[in-house]
What does this fold into?
Amino acid sequence: MKILIVDDFSTMRRIIKNLLRDLGFTNTEEADDGTTALPMLQSGKYDFLITDWNMPGMQGIDLLKAVRSDAKLAGLPVLMVTAESKRDQIVEAAQAGVNGYVVKPFTAGTLEEKINKIFERVAA
Amino acid sequence: MAESSARSSARLQLARALVSYLEAGNENDAGDVIAELSGFGDSQLFQEIGRLTRELHDSINSFVADAKLADIAQHEMPDAAERLRYVITTTEQAANTTLSAVEESLPLADTLRSDARHLADQWERFKSRQLSVDDFRELSGELSSFLAVTQTNSEALHDKLSEVLMAQGYQDLTGQVICKVITLVNDVEGKLVELVRLSGNRARSSEGNVMEGPDDSPQGPVVPGVDKGDVVSGQDDVDDLLSSLGF
It folds into this structure.
């Protein structure tokens, strides 16, 4: 299970990375915005994408749309972990095909629950 | 151009007339001509002042009509204060969470260290056959309880360290809020530069006059007292919204 964590704040990437390691996911890589993340996703074999929304360069929502419109990546499970909490934005992410949405600040329990739910659904 | 050459030929005519009046000793007519000549300068001066006044008036009007400026004064400045207060509260909470977790962790680590030291001493005595059967029975009991306590304490330590980890999320949240305030400060700086240019009488039509559309850029964290409108109140709200969309 290879996971890409995309957030412009390195502290948040470290937090998510450590939480994932606690959950048994040790194979993680990081990117600081969509522009860096997209080529990594296209060239490396990732099983899961966790991305922030508000980033300089390419925003998380645009990364999500790019992933869904790329034939090779379209099926990649995507979890958004973001401080964006307008209803319109959550609806937009849902319509763009996000698999889960976690608002910051979040707890370790919430992240675990959402990740498990996504994997259950992917496996089903 | 035509106007200014007409004006100078008119002045030339008046000057010639003035010379001939003076040579003829006609003081009255000479005085009229002088008054007329100086009037030329006055009317030009008034025209110039009129033009500058109009320019200044237009510039000030366009500056005042700049919707962005009004918005900065009425909303964004007070909002910025709220945002910075949010930064204080959030960093304070994170610091307190971290300090509490450390304060609760240190005694757990101390217990592990002192218990292990005591057992290590006893174990050395056992290896050098200095323990009686009763002493050994006691050591055996201590070992059992040490193993149980170690398990509980290390789990508690793990939880405390996870709390410290999660508390660091403040840096992302406050960072986003501070970036917004920096953008505002830059905007205000731009407007002040414009104002200085206006008052320096080198008015140019304002470039920042373009009306901005509705703000659909990312909003960052919800700041109490600033963010109103259609925002969710937490993860439960997000989950409800998503399940209403068939998630």
The interface with chain A takes residues 162, 165-166, 168-173, 175-176, 218-222, 229-232, 234-235, 238, 241-242, 245, 247 of chain B (CB under 8 Å). Residues 205-211 of chain B have pLDDT under 50 and may be disordered. The CA atoms of residues 78 and 99 of chain B lie 32 Å apart.
